[in-house]
Amino acid sequence: MRSIRRRGRGRPVIAAAAIAAALAVTATACESDDSGDSDAKSSAEADGGQQDGEKGKDGIGLPDKLPDNLPSSLEDLDKWRDGAWKDWDKEQWLRKAKDFVNPYIKDHWNLDRMKKAEDNEKQVPKDVGNTSADTGNDPEPEAVRAKAVPTPYTKSAAPAGKVFMDTPKGPMVCSGTVIKDPRNPGNSNLVATAGHCVHSGKSGGWLRNITFVPAYNNKGLSPRQVQSAQRSDVMPYGEYWAEWAQTTNYWISEGAQSGGGGAQQDFAVLKVKPVQGGKSLEATVGNAVKANFKAPSVQRFSSLRSYGYPAAPPYNGARMYSCLDKPGSLTIDPSQPAMFRIGCTMTGGSSGGGWFMQGKGGKPELVSVNSIGPQPATWLAGPRLGPEAHGVFSAISKKYAGKS
After folding, report:
1. pLDDT of 76-92, one tens digit each?
2. CA–CA distance, 334 with 171 (Å, rounded to integer)
C-alpha cells in the first residue's frame, strides 16, 4: 500500500532501448458483480497494445506482430530477457494504457528474487486528515494491531496473494485479490490491486515484470523456511504473469509518492495468465470474490476487514495479516469520493490488499484496496470503489471476454 512516510521512494522508469516503446509494462510496487458498461473514463479506454485474441510468442504478454518501426525488436527482446529492462530512462516513461506490454521472462521471479522484493510504499503525513481542507473527515482511528491469518490461507482468507514487480529501485511487492469476472464466469483471470502497484502516477509510468502469486506461502512458513522451501510450498497454485493492466486516469494524472495525491482513485486490475499453463486463475484457486462498485456509505458499515502481506518492519512479507475495524472517512481531494479508513498496523507490502464487506449469503465482497497509511503505521485508508473503478474493471473484462 502507499504508505505515508516522511521520506519518499523512487518511482519506476521506462526502458531506454527502442524496445521500451513496444514492450512497456504496468506494475507498481508497494512498500518499499457488476458487468454493465460504465461511462467513467479510465486508462482502460485507450486503444492499442496487444490486440484482443492475440497470443504471445511465449503465450504470455508478447504480441506475435511487433511494431514495424522496430526491425530489431526480437533481438531487443532477447536483450530484455537478459536484463536490459533494468536500463530505464526517466525521460521515456510510458504512461498510456496502449503502451502496456509485459513480456514473460522465464524463471525471473525465483524465490531469492521474491525474498529481496521490498514494499513499494507511498507516504503521507500522519496528520493528513487534519491538514487537508475542511471536508468533515472522521477522527483518526485508534490503532488496531494486525493479526496473522490462520493457515492455510486458502481456508482462512479471501483468495489473496502477492503482486511482484520491478522498479528502477529494484524488485518490489504489493498484495492483490482474485476477483470474479462476469464475462468469464467461473474462469476469471482478474486480480484487483492498487493503482500505485502498476503505475507510478503523475511523475512516471508503468512498472515492469509484473506477476501474481496466489496464496503465497500458504503454510505460513518463516522467512528462513521460505528460502529453503520447495517452490510448490511457497507458490501452491503457481505463478500468474500479468498480460494487461488498467488503472484510473485520476491516479495516472494525480498519483504521488507522498502526501496522498491520487489515493482516492488508487485502484487497478490485472489480467493474468498461468505461467505453468492449465486452468484459469479462479478455477485453479477454487475461489474469487465479487467486486462491489456500489457499496454503502461509510456510515452503513459496522466493520470492514483488510488483508495484505506487510513487508516493511516490523513485518517481513512472509505472512498474510488482516485488520478488522469500523471504518471512518478520509478526504484529501474534495472533488473525489471520500476514502474508507480503519485502524491497522499493517505496513507497506500490504498495498493493494483487499477490503471486504459481508455480501449476500455472508460471502465477502471487495469494496476497497489498501492505499495509504502513516509511518509509524496506525491506520490504513483505501478508495471507495465507484464509477471510475468500475470503468477500469469493465474495460479489462470486456477486452478479454470469452478468452483465456
Report:
1. 556 656 666 566 554 55
2. 34
State the pLDDT confidence band at 36, using cuts at 50, 70 and 90: very low
**Mean pLDDT in the chain?**
78
Tens of pLDDT, residues 215-254: 999 999 998 898 889 888 999 999 999 999 999 999 999 9
**Cβ-count burial of 294 within 10 angstroms (0-12 exposed, 13-18 middle, 19+ buried)?**
exposed
CA distances to 71, 102, 139 from 75, in Å: 9, 16, 57
For residue 300, give the C-alpha cell.
452503513
CB-based contact 73:67 (threshold 8 Å): yes
Q: Cβ contacts of residue 340 below 8 Å, gap of 6+?
A: 298, 301, 304, 327, 328, 329, 330, 355, 367, 368, 381, 382, 383, 384
Q: What is the largest CA-CA distance in the chain?
A: 59
- DSSP 8-state class, residue 72: T
C-alpha cell at 330: 478520509
Q: Which one is predicted more confidently, 116 or 30? A: 116
Rounded-to-integer distance, Cα 13 and Cα 172, Å: 13
- Helix, strand, or coil (residue 307): strand
Place of cell 477500469: 392
